[in-house]
User: What shape does this take?
Amino acid sequence: MLELPPLSLYVHIPWCVRKCPYCDFNSHQNTGVIPEQDYIEALIKDLNNDLPWVQNRKLHSIFFGGGTPSLFSANAIETVINEAQRCIGFQDNIEITLEANPGTSEQQKFSDFRAAGVNRLSIGVQSFDDNQLKALGRIHDGQQARRALDMAQSAGFERLNIDLMHGLPDQTTGQALADLDTAIDSGITHISWYQLTIEPNTEFFSRPPTLPVEDQLADIQQAGQTRLQEANFDQYEVSAFAMQGAVCAHNINYWQFGDYLGIGAGAHGKITSADKDQVIRTSKTRQPNHFMASASPMASKPIAANQLPLEFMMNGLRLRSGVSADFFPKRTGLSAQTISHQIKKLQSQGLLKNEESIYCTSDLGYRFLNSVLQGFS
Assistant: This one.
């Protein structure tokens, strides 16, 4: 029997100053004046259209992603937060994250974002190395990135994430570790550290840079994980490292197969419909102009029952500590017997731990997570 899990809200703001050559997100380079007021009005309308999915829950977390949400004014962000609180309501200690660019104009807004209700910043640094930043098409340099971290902390942000990439063009292990050392020394408590991948429909896909070879990538990964562990950063998810008490509540809800409304151009959501006994994926019109002009921008589709085990495990097994076995029947509506054969087989292969209360990979299984997931496809 399906039970309603925690509910989060994802807000997509699609504009950025310049499209990065590796980016395959729904982001659009700003070529003029951003229609901030029109877009905020469309977001409010979109949120209110989604209210039937709330089903008497309060919000667990909010995440403003993009694009570059920090291009918007603090007043605009506050308007969305206030409307979400008015029409849905907040759980105690709600986490509200906003993605920000280290560019100077965004830095000046940090205090205003804090006053608007944002209590967690995620700053897209990617690297502190000027040459690498240039190769990645970023609009900031290393000094601006370091200054942004100082200003965010001065603005009162105790919950602060840095996005860092590794496996960058011609990057050495030493260079990757230097980026991590700078992040660690800054005093932040959460680092998202992930490998650069070349995705279709990006500039790098049509003009691929020279990336480190596989053995070098493995060396960087191992050395970086060791460095982070030595600095008391726990790898709680595939690419997320946090000090004690600093994990991202919003992302944890994703990985535990919780629910989230997705509002904004190209936003995706995942909703449990207890009445219909379905788990539903939602998506919104991608083009900002179409989204703002649309009376009903949402498409929805139930996840087929035979796809639910893989969908659940693709999320839950990303967590290093695994996911509660009780969540499977409660959040998919399927009996645990549905996957008992696959679980036992993976346990016998040493890829899953032999525990009844959680589904959790072994160290070997975590290294070869894609192979584990194939067992549920």
